Protein: 3-beta hydroxysteroid dehydrogenase/isomerase domain-containing protein
Amino acid sequence: MTMQNLTERPLLLAAVAIGLLLAAYLVRLNQILSSTPEPIRRLSPKRWSGKLLQKTYQRLEAEPITTKSYAHCIPPKLERRYVITGGSGLVGGYMVLQLLERGQPPESIRIVDFRAPNRNDMTSSPAAAAVDFVRADISSAESTDRAFAKPWPASVAHLPLTVFHTAAVIVPSDRSRLVYSFCEAVNVRGTQHVVDSARRAGADVLVSTTSASISIRPVGFWVAPWKLWSRSSKLADAGLRHFWQVLDEADFFEPPREHHEYYANYPASKAAAERIVCVANAPGFRTGCIRPGNGVYGNPTDNTVGGPLNMGVYPTWTCHIVQSFVHGINAAIAHLQFEAVLAMGPEAASAPQAGRPFVVTDPNPPIAYSDLYFAIASLAVTPFRTIPLQPILMLLLSYPIEWYNLLPARVPFLRGLVPQLTADAKHLQPALFSICTHLIASDAVVSKPVEAGGLGYIGVLTTLEGMTQEVVEWNREHKAASAAGTEVVYLTSVSLAEEIKKARGAV
Structure:
């Protein structure tokens, strides 16, 4: 078609012009989404090298990180008994191991969870295997009460009770209120059930795990076209609201946000749960919350490192994204440090630490996802490669996927008729892109000394050490399985959420 044809057909000319402008807009937006703003680049200027990874791997393979190797960092033993909801999981499991390492007898610890522990480091430990396990669904008040009311051995029944509440369901991609009920049932009402049952059981300390993702604001991707090319619009934000964010506790001291001001249902539910716990703080029942900084990792069952390891071929648009991470060991120690402050006595209820959350992260600058992917590709005995994707194409695709996923909620008679998408595809929804941007967690407050209002938190291991250690464990387990002719299967927290959802639906 010639220019003369176009000029003779003004509507067609207008359509072509609009199409070209739209294409230019999407190309420019893709450039921004594929970039690392200069302020973030300065926070994370160095990438992991192959030499550094090999050196770290060899050191940790020879001297693995165990509870014994960092026992001196675990707060001293307290004469108490413990209920750990979610004690089979990532952070809760490390709490169990740390409590045992510091000398708590197994009979003084009770795991309350939807499933029994299946982590190798827990099932292979005689002490951890001796810890009592009670299966419970915290979305049920009766189930939660039964788990807390179970009699204790006479040797520990007289001891004061601490509750660590780590149980939750993680659904990172749903944002519509139409499908909020699942997160609300487990994360919100479940937390209220745990608080109520803990009180009835006589607990005087409760520390809950929430999430630094509570403070994440939804990213504003669709901005006015002229802002993308504005000379005053630096790559630091390029007109995109919340393209990079600092995760701290400031939002807790502000009025609660509306549901749509959270990036998804999960952080909205965790924010509500956090308020339930913190409002409950009183002299006879001291409470507080730990917010692990964004991605929590530390075992092949996690989503951050274990997810890519389990896939082998990993499509991604996040190689350039810079984020903070926190190892389960570091998060667990922060909970024990919080307990040490709250267990000082009824007067601790008025301490600056009580009735509030603290963000924790690994003791190092943030890393890029390319560091993680390079570590896996360089060190894992199983094949691994990434398939680079264009972020704008994935963002555009996420909207029809969300619309399709919500069909059964919008039109109830379609339930059972509309085929469900597979686990990976159905999570590609717009909310996911707000946690696939640059997120920097700040542990400035929790790291302060106790006398200054902090917890004296110092992470035990860095992200480099923690992620390398996880690959060491992965390799060891897969080499052993290969020699035995068996297969290693892991259940991640997102997979567990699906399992719980199906079980609740069946009931």
User: Anything to note?
Assistant: Residues 10-33 form the longest helix (24 residues).
